[in-house]
Design goal:
The complex is a heterodimer.
Chain A (H helix, E strand, L loop, with lengths): L2 E5 L2 E3 L5 E8 L7 E7 L5 E7 L6 E3 L7 E6 L4 E6 L8 E9 L1 E5 L3 E5 L2
Chain B lengths: L3 E4 L2 E4 L5 E7 L7 E6 L6 E5 L3 E2 L7 E6 L2 E6 L9 E6 L5 E2 L3 E5 L1
Parallel strand pairs in B: 2-11
Antiparallel strand pairs in B: 1-3, 3-8, 4-5, 4-9, 5-6, 7-8, 9-10, 9-11
Classes of the chains: A mainly beta, B mainly beta.
């Protein structure tokens, strides 16, 4: 079955940076759009960013534009999220998800905590 | 931005009974609507896409209906493992989720 495994979360100070990774396996990574979705503690789900199969198109929720950057390496079956200028409101579990009609497979998530 | 509103916030139903969850979009999303189930400490799981198509491996007791702005998720006979939080999500205009409906045991 499809597997997505996130890593890179942790505690970071406001204004700091963090890079999340997602290792994909058991499917042909290069033919799918991929996404990041986050969930603040005790809250609902929020889509963060999408990237096209070849990386040529990227889309972001307004609240992270100019601060976050999504990328991928199809040779390594990996998805990334570079997060800069982090704010307290970015605290959340970040999920990597495969995008088809909806998000059909999700990783287990990695927790990012922004706090001094 | 298309705002998704789910109702009720909490639904109490007995095992074996039917549960009906609602989702309304602030503008039409055609049939570009998905439903997810999330249990505590777990990632969401896709149940329904295209408003009414069950995802791979989803039991037939889960069904979705609606189009445009009004959607429904029905669970025909609740099993113990179905008590969870359910989210709707539109993918017609960006990607936005409802705030969730918590389905609890009555």
């Amino acid at each position: 079955e499809v597997q997505l495994v996130e890593s890179g979360g942790g505690l970071v100070q406001p204004g700091g940076s963090l890079r999340l990774s997602c290792a994909a396996s058991r499917f042909t990574f290069s033919i799918y759009w991929m996404s990041w979705v986050r969930q603040a503690p005790g809250k609902g789900l929020e889509w963060v960013a999408n990237i096209k199969q070849d990386g040529s198109e990227k889309y972001y929720v307004d609240s992270v534009k100019g601060r976050f950057s999504i990328s991928r390496d199809n040779a390594k079956n990996s998805l990334y999220l570079q997060m800069n200028s982090l704010r307290a409101e970015d605290t959340a579990v970040y999920y990597c998800a495969r995008l088809t009609d909806g998000f059909d497979y999700w990783g287990q998530g990695t927790l990012v905590t922004v706090s001094s | 931005e298309t705002v998704m509103t789910q109702s009720p916030a909490t639904l109490s139903v007995s095992p074996g009974e039917r549960a009906t969850l609602s989702c309304r979009a602030s503008q039409g999303v055609n049939s570009n609507l998905a439903w997810y189930q999330q249990k505590p400490g777990q990632a969401p799981r896709l149940l329904i896409y295209g408003a009414s198509t069950r995802a791979t491996g989803i039991p037939a007791r889960f069904s979705g209906s609606g189009s445009g702005t009004e959607f429904t998720l029905t669970i025909s006979s609740l099993q113990s493992e179905d008590f969870a939080v359910y989210y709707c999500q539109q993918y017609n205009d960006g990607y936005t989720f409802g705030q969730g409906t918590k389905l609890e045991i009555k």
